[in-house]
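User: Watch each token:
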Amino acid sequence: MIVRIMGEGQFEVPDSLVDRLNELDNAVLAALDSSDETDFRVSLAALLAAVRAGGTAVDHDTLVPSDATLPYDEATVDEVRALLREDGLIPG
């Protein structure tokens, strides 16, 4: 899976990490639903950190389609809501 973090670049994420990313994605969604800004920030940071730690950066000169687009670290709740798909930020 290719995941883009806005303003940062793309990461190739192994299939073995997708379930964990979906768990973290669900935590972001729950924080959005409850309008809890603190939980939202913590959950978003955890999701982004998991992509950075478990994924491999795609060379900036390589153009490949992204399977998921994640917001940047300081994205607002409204910006994140605009990125949401039917199944959240991470497909699956």
